[in-house]
Specification:
- The protein has 272 residues and is of the alpha/beta class.
- The chain has a single domain, classed as Ribokinase (UDP-N-acetylmuramoyl-L-alanine:D-glutamate ligase, 3-Layer(aba) Sandwich).
- It contains eleven helices and nine strands.
Length: 272
């Protein structure tokens, strides 16, 4: 069993490796968050690309380092781009992350997410309501907001991981990471409420998950833990200099740029 300090030390090493590789992340994401997501990736040390045409998405997913599929503002043409990009990423051996935003309540995103989760994502990232709905055990939350606590989704997350082979990151006041094969759940207690008051933080974390998967050489569980630590610590550091959402968003980008392995190891709160 890994201790909390083992996790934070390994996460710091993965952050260093991600920055060394500067992975190119193909983001098929929602229209609301594209600019912020690109800036988050750049601040953290990765490189963004947003290509939504179905034909070009399929071509690009095979050469990018990793792929993010986020169904937040899904349209039928974008859904087709996601299908083609996932197939291309799988054929090229590139890791990809599914963020099933607001799944459960609306039919297009729910059907598409159920289809894609069967296509071997490296990781699934979502709030408790989204994970429950994706696992077939709930009806979703209130739009992007969860109506369930993280602990309520733990068994569903474990079942989803075992069924798909993916690591699962469930976000909340205390994040939960589970993985297939009987791996012990890991909880990460970093974060502040202001993280929920800036549009795009969660979606951008999905892009960070993809970047970290590209550097983790198959260890999606460690990538999920690292992404949770990175966003949580960045939020805490941003809140020290800003108490309002507008300036907090800028401070969050600065904090992501500032955090290094030493900070991550010293300030990470892993409950393993």
């Amino acid at each position: 069993m890994q201790t909390p300090s083992d996790w934070t030390r390994a996460a710091g090493a993965l952050l260093d490796e991600m920055r060394r590789r500067a992975p190119l992340v193909h983001c098929l994401t929602n229209h609301v968050v594209t600019n912020f997501t690109a800036n988050v990736l750049l601040a953290a040390g990765a490189a963004p690309a947003m290509i939504h045409d179905p034909e070009e998405s399929a071509m690009f997913a095979g050469v990018a380092s990793a792929l993010l599929v986020n169904v937040g503002t899904i349209e039928r043409e974008q859904a087709e781009a996601m299908r083609r990009a996932v197939a291309s990423a799988n054929a090229a051996g590139r890791p990809w992350v599914l963020d099933p935003v607001a799944v459960g309540a609306l039919p297009l995103r729910t059907t598409l997410s159920a289809e894609l989760v069967a296509q071997h994502p490296a990781m699934v990232r979502g709030n408790a309501s989204e994970i429950l709905a994706l696992a077939g055990e709930g009806e979703g939350g209130r739009g992007v907001d969860s109506t369930q606590g993280v602990d309520a989704s733990a068994e569903a997350a474990i079942g989803l991981a075992e069924r798909t082979g993916a690591a699962v990151l469930v976000t909340g006041p205390v994040d939960l990471v589970v993985a297939p094969g009987g791996a012990a759940p890991v909880r990460i207690a970093n974060g502040v409420p202001l993280l929920t008051r800036v549009t795009g933080v969660g979606c951008s974390q999905g892009a960070l998950c993809a970047a970290l998967c590209a550097a983790a050489d198959g260890d999606a569980r460690l990538a999920a833990v690292t992404a949770a630590l990175l966003v949580g610590i960045a939020g805490e550091r941003a809140a020290r200099v800003s108490s309002r959402p507008g300036s907090f968003a800028v401070a969050l980008l600065d904090a992501l740029d500032e955090i290094d392995a030493t900070i991550l190891e010293a300030e990470g709160r892993v409950l393993a």
